[in-house]
């Protein structure tokens, strides 16, 4: 493995590695993807089904113009004729009306009970008394004004005839010649004039009504005969001094929904302005409240026409004499061809359904991002050298293509099955709209992912967003859009929420396709963007701006929040400042704080920190790791004191050394490793990995280290080989070198044979995952490797295998290894440090430590309990300094100082004892590393708690030797 040292992978190499990993990952999730893409398919099919169902119903004879078989030409055979007269009420609407009936023009006049009378709040005496309302004889008031009162009065005299007669032989003409009015409401279409189809009479308006009895006329119109009552209404024109007086009176008579207030309605108001013999100039007040439910005001114009005709007739008669009239003969609706019912479901339900379809992608992208965060895979990738740039580029491009493919499938499928929603609207608008939206959505997912670290929560929140947005859009936002009185500014504000801007866009598409389909024209075109009611232009602008802003903010927050090298919120500012050379300092000058670590009788530890001092002054390349008084303090919370996780650790590690870190749980080992791999920032002090400072150059360090974390950080669906390929590529391995390295690595951790390498990591046993993690940490020849309890959960065979791998690997690199297995530490480590309570208690190679802290044999003997005293005497004779450390029902354990006893003497003594009493079993052992560990750990503990009950605190620390108890 004497390969040349690989430089850090370039941007594109990293991007390539990540892309390939993502593609493989996606291939594994093929079923999830198919389910995802089939969702819009299912919805489209559902719409199609509904549509064809509705079409089936509408296409039946019930909703088509009625027909009958009638012998029209008398040849004895019947021909099919269709028309209104053969239709039921459901069918009429679709029939052709080629020759709509003519209706006499009518005035809109108030019903008798609302006609203007004298009241307290209208100061005019020319109005009739209130009592007329009881008899229904109130006059229909017409107000007029103008610059010349006498001229106005001349005009008005001609307007309302004194009396009128109806010629029953030609009713229509005589109705037109007189002035007719109705209190009924006009409708959207004037095919049937409602005045002739209501209970209310038609009023003939004249100066005097002799009697108010009604007569009845019959109107014959296009094969219909209508019987209609006609009663008399007295027309009463009243002069007002100014137009503001007219205005005032009209306003005061307006009911305005207040039932307390008396209603005083008038017919029309005329302002003759400067009309004289040479010019005719008039403005007319009319009641525009007579509108149809659809809100289209021009409907009432049908009846305004007659009041205009009245004024102009009066003027002409004034000029040319009473015989001259412009006859306003009739009102006629436009002819109508045969139509058919068309209901486009995709357009009606589209906005709601398709909002769901499009926004569905959000939780997918969102949970993917949170998954990588929750599983710490992002950190893991970063620790193996994946930079932020490639990560963002590839993740973004990857989600964008995923979304694009999804949307493309959706639109193509919808168009293929012929949903008008897609086919009617211009495809380029649809493309632009969807493209901008999915970009916005992905940026939003990145932003949201910064605030979540749990996939389940993220998924729930994501789907609540999906359904909430759809429902709020459909049942709140849409009403607000359609309510023309709702301020448009607030609509824009609501559209700042991307879900609503999506809804608005889809709503506009559906509106255009619906009307386009109904009217038989086209849907939205680019030119329609300038329509005043079309909100598409605004939302396109909103979304583009939002996309850029959100993307920037997401990147910023990602850098600050998830940054492992601890960038401050001002990192952009700092990055700018860094260009100033003055702020750069040499590492040796950066040491801060005075050394106050308590270096009591720990010569090895202080020797190490002297070495560190030395190395800082004269850097040497063969030292891979230099920790300089590294400290980590967690601030006190809830009244608890500060917690010192690491209290000043100095350590220098040359290449080719494996340093074992031993220590009880909670001693601070993991805190130390976290600092070294950049998960947390040191409180004070620092460390240099291959000369790079962990506080400032973590990104550079990541390309040089390998990490085997305590908990396996693996993608469940990727195989072992794929993991190694990915991390290998991140470490800049390429081509055959990569395949060879992966294969060797797999073989070395015994994952190569039996197809294990190509099994998904989720199906591995705990041991296999562990081995894979170790392989991952070693791939690409990193110079520094951290292994956090690499062999936990391994069977003895795999463990030996793994040890061989590590032994082989440590030749040209520095390894820091934490473990609870003394055996492992003894086999693998060149040096050991025992780490208790945040600081190193001793440091040295295993043999030295054993010699220093051991120095005694452990003598175990089992007899029947009656001979216990005799055994004790025997041991005292052998070695006066012996100490009994353990005894229970005849089994005793003694510690014998090495310098006092010879092994031969012990054998002799036991042989002698065997003559006197039965010795069931006995043994003599040198100190193990475990004994050292317990002794050191115990010593610190005893010191810290000042000897109080220290024996109980450490009882049972060595799980393999439960009989080890000290200090009785
Ligand atoms: C008002 O109209 C009358 C005719 O009706 C005319 O004689 C008179 O000059 C007009 N007055 C003004 C100020 O125009
Ligand atoms: C009624 O109308 C018919 C036809 O236009 C006409 O001959 C007749 O004289 C009219 N009768 C009266 C009373 O005007
Ligand atoms: C209208 O004007 C006439 C004459 O200029 C005046 O006598 C009358 O009081 C005015 N009417 C009102 C209601 O102001
Ligand atoms: C206008 O018409 C509406 C509807 O019939 C009526 O309620 C209202 O009072 C009328 N307003 C005036 C000023 O006549």
Automatic annotation (TrEMBL):
<dbReference type="InterPro" id="IPR003439">
    <property type="entry name" value="ABC_transporter-like_ATP-bd"/>
</dbReference>
<dbReference type="GO" id="GO:0005524">
    <property type="term" value="F:ATP binding"/>
</dbReference>
<feature type="transmembrane region" description="Helical">
    <location>
        <begin position="310"/>
        <end position="328"/>
    </location>
</feature>
<dbReference type="Pfam" id="PF00005">
    <property type="entry name" value="ABC_tran"/>
</dbReference>
<feature type="transmembrane region" description="Helical">
    <location>
        <begin position="460"/>
        <end position="481"/>
    </location>
</feature>
<dbReference type="InterPro" id="IPR026082">
    <property type="entry name" value="ABCA"/>
</dbReference>
<protein>
    <recommendedName>
        <fullName>ABC transporter domain-containing protein</fullName>
    </recommendedName>
</protein>
<keyword id="KW-0812">Transmembrane</keyword>
<comment type="similarity">
    <text>Belongs to the ABC transporter superfamily. ABCA family. CPR flippase (TC 3.A.1.211) subfamily.</text>
</comment>
<keyword id="KW-1133">Transmembrane helix</keyword>
<keyword id="KW-0067">ATP-binding</keyword>
<feature type="transmembrane region" description="Helical">
    <location>
        <begin position="431"/>
        <end position="453"/>
    </location>
</feature>
<dbReference type="InterPro" id="IPR017871">
    <property type="entry name" value="ABC_transporter-like_CS"/>
</dbReference>
<feature type="transmembrane region" description="Helical">
    <location>
        <begin position="539"/>
        <end position="557"/>
    </location>
</feature>
<feature type="transmembrane region" description="Helical">
    <location>
        <begin position="348"/>
        <end position="371"/>
    </location>
</feature>
<dbReference type="InterPro" id="IPR013525">
    <property type="entry name" value="ABC2_TM"/>
</dbReference>
<dbReference type="GO" id="GO:0016020">
    <property type="term" value="C:membrane"/>
</dbReference>
<dbReference type="Pfam" id="PF24526">
    <property type="entry name" value="ABCA12_C"/>
</dbReference>
<feature type="transmembrane region" description="Helical">
    <location>
        <begin position="30"/>
        <end position="50"/>
    </location>
</feature>
<dbReference type="InterPro" id="IPR003593">
    <property type="entry name" value="AAA+_ATPase"/>
</dbReference>
<keyword id="KW-0547">Nucleotide-binding</keyword>
<feature type="domain" description="ABC transporter">
    <location>
        <begin position="625"/>
        <end position="862"/>
    </location>
</feature>
<feature type="transmembrane region" description="Helical">
    <location>
        <begin position="391"/>
        <end position="419"/>
    </location>
</feature>
<dbReference type="Pfam" id="PF12698">
    <property type="entry name" value="ABC2_membrane_3"/>
</dbReference>
<keyword id="KW-0472">Membrane</keyword>
<dbReference type="InterPro" id="IPR027417">
    <property type="entry name" value="P-loop_NTPase"/>
</dbReference>
């Amino acid at each position: 493995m004497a390969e040349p040292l690989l430089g850090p992978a370039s941007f594109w190499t990293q991007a390539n590695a990540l892309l390939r990993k993502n593609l493989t990952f996606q291939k594994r999730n093929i079923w999830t993807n198919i389910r995802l893409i089939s969702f819009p398919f299912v919805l489209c099919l559902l719409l199609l089904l509904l549509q064809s169902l509705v079409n089936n119903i509408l296409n039946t004879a019930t909703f088509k113009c009625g027909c009958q078989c009638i012998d029209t030409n008398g040849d004895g055979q019947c021909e099919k004729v269709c028309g209104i007269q053969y239709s039921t009420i459901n069918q009429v609407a679709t029939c052709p009306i080629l020759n709509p009936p003519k209706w006499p023009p009518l005035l809109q006049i108030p019903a008798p009970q609302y006609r203007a009378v004298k009241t307290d709040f209208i100061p005019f005496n020319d109005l009739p008394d209130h009592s007329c309302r009881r008899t229904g004889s109130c006059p229909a008031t017409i107000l007029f004004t103008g610059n010349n009162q006498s001229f106005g009065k001349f005009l008005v005299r001609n307007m309302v005839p004194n009396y009128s007669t109806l010629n029953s032989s030609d009713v229509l003409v005589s109705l037109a010649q007189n002035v007719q009015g109705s209190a009924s409401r006009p409708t959207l279409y004037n095919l049937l004039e409602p005045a002739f189809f209501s209970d209310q009479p038609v009023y003939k308006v004249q100066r005097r009504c002799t009697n108010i009895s009604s007569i009845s006329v019959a109107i014959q119109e296009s094969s219909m005969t209508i019987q209609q009552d006609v009663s008399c209404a007295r027309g009463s024109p009243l002069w007002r001094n100014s137009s503001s007086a007219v205005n005032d009176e009209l306003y005061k008579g307006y009911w305005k929904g207040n039932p307390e207030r008396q209603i005083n309605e008038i017919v029309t108001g005329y302002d003759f302005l400067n009309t004289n013999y040479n010019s005719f100039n008039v403005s007319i007040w009319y009641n525009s409240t007579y509108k149809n439910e659809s809100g289209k005001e021009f409907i009432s114009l049908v009846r305004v026409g007659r009041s205009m005709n009245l004024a102009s007739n009066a003027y002409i008669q004034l000029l040319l004499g009473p015989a001259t009239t412009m006859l306003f003969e009739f009102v006629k609706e436009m002819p109508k061809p045969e139509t058919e019912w068309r209901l486009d479901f995709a357009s009606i339900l589209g906005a709601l359904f398709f909002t769901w379809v499009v926004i569905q992608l959000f939780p997918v992208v969102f949970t993917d991002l949170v998954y990588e965060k929750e599983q710490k895979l992002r950190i893991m990738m970063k620790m193996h050298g994946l930079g932020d740039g490639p990560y963002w580029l590839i993740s973004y491009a990857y989600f964008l293509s995923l979304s694009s493919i999804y949307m493309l499938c959706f639109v193509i499928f919808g168009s293929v099955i012929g949903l008008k929603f897609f086919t009617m609207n211009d495809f380029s608008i649809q493309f632009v709209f969807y493209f901008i939206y999915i970009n916005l959505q992905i940026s939003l997912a990145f932003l949201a992912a910064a605030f979540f670290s749990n996939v389940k929560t993220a998924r729930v929140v994501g789907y609540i967003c999906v359904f909430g947005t759809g429902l709020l859009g459909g049942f709140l936002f849409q009403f607000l859009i359609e309510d023309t009185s709702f301020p448009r500014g607030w609509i824009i504000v609501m559209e700042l929420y991307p879900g609503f801007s999506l809804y608005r866009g889809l709503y506009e598409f559906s509106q255009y396709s619906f009307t386009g389909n109904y009217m038989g024209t086209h849907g939205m075109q680019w030119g329609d963007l300038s329509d005043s009611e079309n909100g598409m232009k605004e939302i396109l602008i909103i979304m583009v701006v939002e996309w850029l802003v959100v993307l920037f903010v997401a990147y910023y927050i990602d850098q600050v929040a998830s940054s492992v090298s601890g960038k401050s919120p001002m990192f952009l500012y700092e990055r700018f400042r860094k260009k100033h050379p003055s702020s750069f300092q040499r590492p040796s000058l950066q040491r801060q704080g005075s050394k106050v670590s308590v270096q009591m009788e720990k010569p090895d530890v202080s020797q190490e920190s002297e070495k560190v001092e030395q190395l800082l002054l004269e850097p040497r390349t063969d030292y891979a790791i230099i920790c300089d008084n590294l400290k980590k303090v967690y601030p006190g919370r809830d009244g608890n004191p500060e917690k010192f996780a690491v209290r000043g650790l100095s350590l220098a590690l040359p290449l080719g050394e494996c340093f074992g870190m031993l220590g009880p749980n909670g001693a601070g080992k993991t805190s130390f490793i976290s600092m070294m791999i950049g998960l947390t920032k040191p409180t004070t002090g620092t460390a240099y990995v291959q000369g790079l400072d962990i506080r400032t150059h973590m990104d550079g360090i990541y390309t040089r280290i390998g990490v085997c974390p305590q908990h396996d950080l693996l993608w469940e669906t990727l195989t072992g080989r794929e993991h190694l390929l990915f991390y290998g590529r991140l470490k800049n391995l390429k081509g055959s070198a990569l395949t060879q390295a992966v294969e060797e690595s797999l073989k070395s951790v015994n994952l190569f044979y039996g197809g294990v390498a190509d099994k998904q990591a989720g199906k591995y046993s705990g041991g296999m995952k562990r081995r894979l993690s170790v392989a991952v940490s070693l791939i690409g020849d990193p110079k520094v490797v951290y292994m956090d309890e690499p062999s936990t959960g391994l069977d003895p065979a795999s463990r030996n295998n793994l040890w061989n791998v590590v032994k082989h690997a440590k030749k040209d690199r520095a390894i820091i290894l934490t473990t609870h297995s003394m055996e492992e530490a003894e086999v693998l480590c060149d040096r050991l440090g025992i780490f208790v309570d945040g600081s190193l208690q001793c440091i040295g190679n295993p043999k030295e430590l054993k010699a220093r802290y051991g120095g005694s044999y452990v003598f175990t003997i089992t007899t029947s309990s009656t001979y216990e005293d005799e055994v004790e005497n025997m041991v005292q004779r052998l070695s006066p300094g012996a100490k009994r450390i353990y005894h229970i029902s005849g089994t005793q354990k003694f510690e014998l100082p090495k310098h006092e006893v010879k092994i031969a003497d012990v054998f002799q003594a036991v042989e002698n004892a065997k003559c006197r009493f039965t010795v069931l079993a006995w043994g003599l052992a040198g100190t193990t590393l475990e004994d050292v560990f317990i002794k050191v750990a115990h010593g610190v503990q005893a010191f810290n708690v000042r000897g109080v009950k220290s024996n109980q605190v450490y009882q049972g620390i060595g799980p393999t030797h439960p009989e080890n108890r000290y200090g009785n």
